[in-house]
Amino acid sequence: MKKYDAIVIGGGPAGLFAAINLSGGSRSVLILEKNQKPGKKLLLTGGGQCNLTHTGDVSELLKHYGDGAKFLKTALFSFSNTDLMHFFNKRKLKLITEEDGKVFPASKKAEDVLNVLLRECDKNGVEIECGTPVKHVEKSDDGFYIFTDIKKYLGKNLIIATGGMSYPKTGSTGDGYAFAKYFGHTINQVRPALTPLYVKDFVLKDLAGISFEDLCLSLWRDGKKVREFSGDVLITHRGISGPGVLNNSKYVDAGDVIKINFMNTNPERFRADFVETVAKNGGLTVKSILRKYPIPRRLADKILQLAGIPDEMTCANLKKEYRKRLVEMLTEFPIEVEKPGDFNVAMITKGGISLREVKPTSMESRLVKGLYFAGEILDIDGDTGGYNLQAAFSTGYLAARSILQNTHEIML
Fold this sequence. Notes:
six-stranded antiparallel β-barrel, BaiN-like_dom_sf, seven-stranded mixed sheet, FAD/NAD(P)-binding domain, 30% helix, 12 helices, alpha+beta, 412 residues, RsdA/BaiN/AoA(So)_Rossmann
């Protein structure tokens, strides 16, 4: 049986990049991929346009990984967003940076990104066996034995880069968690992340397509406010989405209430301004006054309808109870979450292998020597905007570099 220097389970961005940085010279590297082709999920990222990474220095990037930032620090400094862009530019893949800092291939085709990775694997002699789902893994004095239905493989080192559970149709079905558990690793509870929120009896569904910049929202559970957040929000036919919602969806449970501040200002300040404006313009309709505020006309009309205020009602006839209801709906519009989107629509997975059991300086298991992890299988979830792909490349790179250092080899 051939003994590989390293075997990588999973042919996504983390696995491919780890193999690329491990390979070359006389080193033997094998990728085992369950799908018929590698990178199936990569082809879906950014709606198929592949938002590779995001601009900004590493310290700025780290702010977008929440509790995982400290763990990722070494990986991102070892292989930064600048390094990633240089990698692709050097291989003649032109990149573009949009105004919001997102970085894409100029072609806006994820396939072009995948092709660069596959060419590098081919050039460096990486073996890729597709249609080869791994069933079981074992550790012995010889190394790691990897079992499929028809064959077994042996590697000195093992990198598990099987991803999480989002987009299961791409093969991300949590296989790697079982392998990690076999080696004694803890799997923190997994749940969908970067997913839209579906709303119960959604009264704003006819406003689908309207978006808002940097709204303030609050999350309520059992009558208590548990979180405040802000960001861009999109109204959909079934609920709310947009970066601000996606980035915080991992904190939301079915039955929670989200209150939206459409005025994007302090509620008390808005109330005082609105009361004064209404008092000074008794002859004008409430509708005309409301349209002077910076909110979409369709939303203003909908709010009036929901508050039970007729189009022809003047400010002079606006009773206190109606005024209070109107202010509340504009600054604390309540929606009850029916459920967050499931793994079929979630971009990434929250949870995974406990970071306490993985060395942040190498991605090596603290429990099993020679075992490494990279990518979404780790309990890391970044914001939308290219941060999760960057983490996949950086952790894959660091795992590869660590293996080479452990074998006293020099990175090419």
